[in-house]
Write a structure and sequence with these properties.
- The protein is α+β, with helices and mostly antiparallel strands and 175 residues long.
- The chain has a single domain, classed as 3-Layer(aba) Sandwich (Aminopeptidase).
- Helices cover 37% and strands 29% of the residues.
- It has a seven-stranded mixed sheet with strand order 1-2-3-6-7-9-8.
- The radius of gyration is 17 Å and the shape is globular.
- The structure holds coenzyme A.
- Coenzyme A binds next to strand 6, helix 5 and strand 7.
- Coenzyme A (COA) binds next to strand 6, helix 5 and strand 7.
Length: 175
């Protein structure tokens, strides 16, 4: 199996609209149909508007998407929380707002091997570390459901707080 990472922005240039749409629509992630929908219906528009960048892990022999992750920027405002003094210091708060990189999406295909998520997180952090070297910012954030808190904690993220709607958890890691 030959696995390569492609930026969606490259595929937008290389493929026609119909080909790209059919390629993205073949991605199946039954654990999270929202992830399927984002890739199929939102990712291209967000890439064209420079809102986010989607990266695809592709099995080039099978011409199949094994997983994808989407990177962007999203600040975090913190008023009250139970974080340690050292974590708050790491955030470089300015009037209660911390600048952060965002992992907006992370999903693998139903039949992709376990462990692909870690590979995608490694690639995402590598891209952000490059950004940090060029223009700063050390916090990476993501939002996840309760069932995935332990998964991200075992990778090194820490729980910041629940979101306003109380349905997701805001997690962060410092690079
Ligand atoms: C998140 C993800 C990429 C991690 O991939 P991975 O590193 O290969 O790890 P695994 O798929 O083995 O998942 C790790 C654990 O999280 C659990 N998990 C993953 N996604 C889950 C979900 N949506 N709901 C509930 N549990 C989930 C798995 O059951 C597994 O638990 P276990 O270790 O007790 O078996 C992959 O599980 C996935 O695509 N999940 C669906 C999409 C999703 O929910 N993304 C979350 C965005 S925040």
């Amino acid at each position: 199996m030959t696995i390569r990472t492609h930026q969606l922005s490259e595929l937008i240039k290389e493929m026609n609209k119909k080909e790209l749409s059919s390629f993205l629509s073949r991605f199946k992630c039954s654990r999270s149909t929202d992830s399927e929908r984002f890739l199929r219906e939102v990712s291209v528009m967000h890439d064209k508007k420079d809102i986010s960048r989607t990266h695809l892990i592709v099995d080039s022999e099978e011409d199949k998407i094994l997983g994808y992750f989407t990177l962007a920027l999203k600040c975090l405002s913190l008023n009250e929380c139970d974080l340690s003094k050292s974590t708050v210091e790491l955030m470089n708060l300015n009037e209660g707002v911390a600048q952060a990189y965002l992992i907006g999406q992370l999903a693998k295909a139903d039949d992709a091997a376990s462990g692909l998520g870690k590979r995608m997180l490694d690639e995402a952090l590598k891209a952000f570390i490059d950004g940090k070297r060029k223009f700063g910012c050390r916090m990476v954030r993501l939002d996840c459901k309760d069932e995935l808190i332990d998964y991200y904690v075992s990778y090194g993220f820490q729980h910041i707080r629940r979101n306003h709607e109380k349905d997701l958890n805001q997690m962060a890691i410092f690079i």
